[in-house]
Amino acid sequence: MSVSGSGVVVTGAAGGIGKALAARLVREGARVVVNDLDPEATERAAAETGAHPVPGDAASEEGVASLIERARDHLGEIDSWFGNAGVARGQGLDATEAEWHTSWEVNTMAHVRAARLLVPGWIERGSGRFVVTASAAGLLTALGTLPYSVSKHGAVAFAEWLSATYRHRGLVVQAICPQGVQTDMLAAPGPLRDVLVADGALTPEAVADVTWEALQDDRFLILPQPEAAGYYVARATSTDRWLGGMNKLQRLIESAT
Ligand SMILES: NC(=O)c1ccc[n+]([C@@H]2O[C@H](COP(=O)([O-])OP(=O)(O)OC[C@H]3O[C@@H](n4cnc5c(N)ncnc54)[C@H](O)[C@@H]3O)[C@@H](O)[C@H]2O)c1
Question: How far apart are CA 175 and CA 71, in angstroms?
Fold first, then answer.
């Protein structure tokens, strides 16, 4: 991918994976806009990475429209969009309607809304890149995070649809699907974090490195922990065995609490 001078937006980039992605893209010569909810945190991340801050909501219809407009004011054309903002809300069947709503808005609908505004122009000019930070939870499932898993499955499904529909028109779509990553999202103590950390939580910079490699060959699935590919195959080909394994993990978590 030639990023030198290209215009890139990274949402949810005040810290964690988004900030690491922004830093790497700036280092590689891109002109990057970083976005996050909190204006001061967004400005700090911009100053640290060499990006330009555009704070605001990257999920609602109005928020996405405003972000794209302000990013275009700064960048001119947006060549690549990294929809990275995400939330982990609610745990199980007791998750509230509000937790479900926020999960859908940020983890799924944000991508639909950004693509709706960006893709027509990209098709006209024959190029554009849309990268979704989904999760291994969106390919497999994650115990103890029901709205997160379901809304991340939605994110992966949307990215698949976009790629299948528009790849012949010059659109590159990619889905980053990490397992554990050492960020604020994984900071809350609990059995799930213990499982994910034990399973090899990566630094955000390592995720950015793997993503950078994947930008060179345009592969759809970006798996910072390559073993996730094996789990994905097992889920598809031996589904009941795989579900039995997941349930064993659930019982382990229950016995540890
Ligand atoms: N940390 C992990 O283990 C892990 C694993 C797989 C996938 N992910 C995904 O990676 C992405 C980045 O998360 P992270 O791990 O760096 O955690 P993080 O909490 O540091 O980053 C998420 C960011 O998104 C921002 N955000 C939330 N709602 C927003 C909105 N409406 N508009 C703009 N910004 C918003 C938050 O303020 C936060 O800064 C998320 O989509 C997350 O689901 C994380």
Answer: 22
Contact 11, 58 (CB under 8 A): yes
> 148, 166, 231, 232: which one is catalytic?
148
CB neighbours (10 Å) of residue 205? 15
Taking Cα atoms as reference points, which of 199, 200, 203, 201 lies closest to residue 252?
199
237 part of a folded domain = no
Residue 248 within any structural domain of the chain: no
Domain count, the chain: 1
Q: CA–CA separation, 103 vs 138, rounded Å?
A: 13
| CATH at residue 42 | 3.40.50.720
Ligand 1 site, residue 180, Cβ cutoff 6 A? yes
pLDDT digits (tens, 9 = 90+) for 159-215: 999 999 999 999 999 999 999 999 999 887 665 566 666 667 999 999 999 999 999
Domain extent, residue 207, equals 7-228
> Does residue 232 have an active-site annotation?
no
pLDDT tens column, 36-93: 999 999 999 999 999 999 999 999 999 999 999 999 999 999 999 999 999 999 999 9
Task: Enumerate helices (H) and strands (E) in the chain, giving the number of each.
Answer: 10, 7
Distance between first and last Cα of the chain: 47
